[in-house]
Amino acid sequence: MADSIYPVPTDWADNALVTAAVYDERYRMSLDDPDTFWREEAARLDWIKPFSTVKETSFNEADFGIRWFGDGTLNLAANCLDRHLAERGDTVAILWEADDPAEAGRAITYRELHEQVCRFANLLKAHGVRRGERVTLYLPMVPEAAVAMLACARIGAIHSVVFAGFSPEALAGRIQDCDSRIVVTADEGLRAGKRVPLKANVDAALGHHCEAVDTVIVLKRTGADVAMVEGRDIDWATGVAAQSADCPAEEMGAEDPLFILYTSGSTGKPKGVLHTTGGYSVWAAMTFQYVFDYRPGQIFWCAADVGWVTGHSYVVYAPLMMGATTVMFEGVPTWPDPSRFWQVVDKFGVEIFYGAPTALRALMREGDDWVTKTSRKTLRLLGSVGEPINPEAWEWYHRVVGEGRCPIVDTWWQTETGACMMTPLPGAHALKPGSAAMPMFGVKPLLLTPEGQVIEGAGEGCLAIADSWPGQMRTVWGDHDRFFQTYFTTFKGLYFTGDGCKRDTDGYYWITGRIDDVINVSGHRMGTAEIESALVAHPKVAEAAVVGMPHDVKGQGIYAFVTTNVEVEPDEALRRELVQWVRREIGPIATPDIIQFTPALPKTRSGKIMRRILRKIGENDLTNLGDTSTLADPAVVDHLLSERPQPA
Ligand code: ATP
Ligand code: MG
């Protein structure tokens, strides 16, 4: 654990929405009197019919159930659009940056977005889409992705966004799993100057036993000549032109389904995570305002894709509920060059930037000049999400990107949790690099031994959450039993996150990675994240992944996959140097048994290291690598397999 600590800057301590005193008081209230607390926080939204009940939840098998604001009604699209029109109809809702910096971007006002959503919602209705029906969205990072999501929310259809980087097989599986009969896509996507054949992928997916699909709406993004199937495929622009700009918002029950999102699959078969309307909206909007200390008029950029939950909650829904200007970026951080993020920050005057450790490590590897040649003077707050951020990468983000002046919110959460669960709040908590700090309001984390003993005070264990929060997922689509079995049986009466976590003597939480990633070397339990952080702290190392491997003497040995900085040529000397380095940083117990250099690590399409596959390589069990459909680049695995070194 890094020992540096960054106190709350004075201007934040004085002026933040949530100061240390406010945090303590509100946090206590959120646990002691949830009904009053959530009644107040839910007032952030416009309800059609106010709720009379707040929290009706139980994690116990006998009376298991999760309902929030149960008898209230509302419409999320109306909360994102209609209610802003009078006051900020001409404010920009979405600032869109194209993949190619030479292509003109777009600035769409709330009034324009409202009109586009209504027209598209009417198009869906004209094609028979009804309340409760599943609509699959397979779209690039263009404003129409938000339009389609909001249109579904407006008419009460359930969207299932499938990341546009997924293969036809992965898409087909998701279409089938939720019985979707309509798919919305684009002719092609663009990423780093390369074309992605989205429409062709949909056609291929529909050849994979998706007979139920009778309608495909196709947005023109590149204008490529794509095959259109007569009677099935509809051109987006032609379709909406024929529709009225008036579409009443459906009155939805708080517990009516809002969307399904399949998890990224780093641990196995993707699950259709279902979120509902009221609780998710309250939770996303509240966390957005407090975590990012959001004030009206600020430009907010979450660099996640809408294909992930982070994109759902913090590119689209929460910023729009709060009337913010949200930046949407089609491209990638390293193209045309590694300065791109910071150029976009300067171009739009971004004040709050929220990104992922995987992107930061990739940029750190390219050197500081790409960052320092940009201004970034508008930035006031930085965020991180998706993986534990190594203290090394944290320090770089803080010192180089934020020039030491921007607090970093390291937000821990999951697709299942809807929005941020643990994070420092910039005006309330001193920062410790690599720590997700403190629980959000209403979240009571518990650390447990594998046997289910609660650990009090400082310690390390399995992370569970004691009680429900509004943005919790409600079920696994089509498999309620899998929902209960997966999350509520490991520790009876608690939600089990699957993650390991430490609590230090200040009460700060440190996510150590997935429980599956804990290795046991000669009886010593170690989180792989700690060894990875030690490796990444070496000046020549860009990224590292550590897994266990069977070892005759130690039970488990340590297998490290290492990617060096671009200018470094890995060799035997560096291998020896890294072994010594880890021994010095952590201790001899953490000595890697194998270090395999690799130009890249296998990652999910959301950029997370797929440790499940690395574990298989570590175990030398290469026959059954499991579901690899969510891998970003399968060639990386072939390369690792062919180059696997044997223990010395
Ligand atoms: P799957 O559940 O399909 O295997 P996944 O867990 O990668 O995929 P997500 O819901 O996107 O899918 O990711 C949640 C997980 O990401 C968390 O459980 C945690 O392991 C990790 N994570 C997210 N944010 C942080 C963070 N700030 N610090 C540490 N870990 C994080
Ligand atoms: Mg998960």
TrEMBL record:
Domain AMP-binding enzyme C-terminal: 530-608
Modified residues (N6-acetyllysine): 608
SUPFAM superfamilies: Acetyl-CoA synthetase-like
Protein name per the record: Acetyl-coenzyme A synthetase
Required cofactor names: Mg(2+)
Catalytic reaction equation(s): acetate + ATP + CoA = acetyl-CoA + AMP + diphosphate
Record PTM: Acetylated. Deacetylation by the SIR2-homolog deacetylase activates the enzyme.
Pfam family, one: AMP-binding_C
Residue sites binding Mg(2+) per the record: 536, 538, 541
Domain AMP-dependent synthetase/ligase per the UniProt entry, residue ranges: 82-466
HAMAP family in the cross-refs: Ac_CoA_synth (MF_01123)
Binding sites annotated in the UniProt record for ATP: 386-388, 410-415, 499, 514, 525
Record-linked PROSITE patterns: AMP_BINDING
This enzyme's EC code(s): 6.2.1.1
Binding-site residues, CoA: 191-194, 310, 522, 583
Source organism of the structure: Blastomonas aquatica
Keywords: Acetylation, ATP-binding, Ligase, Magnesium, Metal-binding, Nucleotide-binding
Domain Acetyl-coenzyme A synthetase N-terminal: start-end pairs: 23-80
Known role: Catalyzes the conversion of acetate into acetyl-CoA (AcCoA), an essential intermediate at the junction of anabolic and catabolic pathways. AcsA undergoes a two-step reaction. In the first half reaction, AcsA combines acetate with ATP to form acetyl-adenylate (AcAMP) intermediate. In the second half reaction, it can then transfer the acetyl group from AcAMP to the sulfhydryl group of CoA, forming the product AcCoA.
Family: Belongs to the ATP-dependent AMP-binding enzyme family.
